[in-house]
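Continuing the batch. This is chain 6 of the set; chains 1 through 5 are on the previous pages. Same settings as before, nothing changed between runs. Recording input and output for traceability.
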Amino acid sequence: MYQTLRTSLLSNARCWDATSQRSYQDLFNRLDANQDGKVDVAELRAGLKAMGIFRHGAAQKIVSSGDQNKDGCLDFNEFTKYLKEHEKKLWLTFKSLDRNNDGRIDASEIQQSLAELGMDVSREDALKILQSMDIDGTMMVDWNEWREHFLLYPAHNLEEIIRYWKHSSMEPDSILWELGETSVLDLGDSLAIPDEFTEEEKSSGLWCKQLAAGAMAGAVSRTGTAPLDRLKVFMQVHSTKTNQINLVGGIRQMIVEGGLTSLWRGNGINVLKIAPETAIKFMAYEQGKKIETHKRFMAGSMAGATAQTAIYPMEVLKTRLTLRKTGQYAGMFDCAKTILRKEGVIAFYKGYVPNLLGIIPYAGIDLAVYETLKNTWLSYYAKDSANPGVVVLLGCGTISSTCGQLASYPLALVRTRMQARASLDASDQPSMTSLLRTIVAKDGFFGLYRGIMPNFMKVIPAVSISYVVYEYMKTGLGIS
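Output for chain 6:
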């Protein structure tokens, strides 16, 4: 019964013509159970169940995506606009899987597409994927079957559809993924760790190799850009309106004071903190997602905050070691003992509040700008693929990271000043707000952006080094 209803409602839902408008209206009327001209989450959920295509969380995601006036439901115009946009994205993904452009997807095309993403599936598993979408029994999926299967499911790009296949109602062990969700580039210092790993990945040890590859890429990237990072911190703390320090002048001062190797001061602990930060973030995410698995972003944010809290004393040590004068400390442990003896435990958490506050605007703006740029590019330039390509993604990431840094940089500067303040003047320990006011009063608004130029300069080399090292490490560890 539900298959007949599902086919009658969806099979004629052609996009971008008058027929589709009537099909959308018919579908909307059937979903609008109380006939009030709006479809809310409960009605959509009930409708999906009636058509036999209910998927956990789909109704909420569809309403959230299409609800333009934020009234918690979809009117017909919102419903129609959502479906048209969704179909366009589904079409791009379908075309990217249709390798030979014959209008149909077969098992070999699924295998080939997933293999390019580092995921190996057998022909039998690819056929099982096809079978879940195949209506006419040909073991091939045409556009109508693809659209019908995913029209009322919020997944549209290949990554989301792979996750759906990965966690769908098929046999849990039917698809043994050789590699899980690939790490994405963090346009700061290193590669970000994946959000989750499958049980197969955990038992096989592949997750350890992925983390090792990411850690090595981060270590090489941080070492390669360490002079720019030290220059940034140097300018944040020492540059003022009356003591202008430019890029060349700052480098020259550091070399004159401590020699060429002084450009790498603080890099040792900056590299060492990758391992505990990654491990704590991963473990915290594993615990966080068990509380409310549908809130991945919240779990990720909590994991990041947990890791930052645990390793923050190392951040303070890094700042002090970066700013140290020749002979001031015998090493990392001597620095830690000196701080503890002279300033107490609280000194290891100087600047902690602005550090956490800075995560909010950076993460929010970075993500929002990245998604906006990527979707805009797809809307105007995508033709046969929903994958923008590495160059476009790196461009979107660079711009979004820049916007995030512009929003959060004043807080980062205040954090660094507070971390360094005790070693500079023990009698002057201002709060975050008073330090902000002092900087603006003495140096003006742009005083909040001291050192941002070397910070921007290190983004592209950091990304490039991370990407290259990560790919070589994957090959070397056998996970390419």
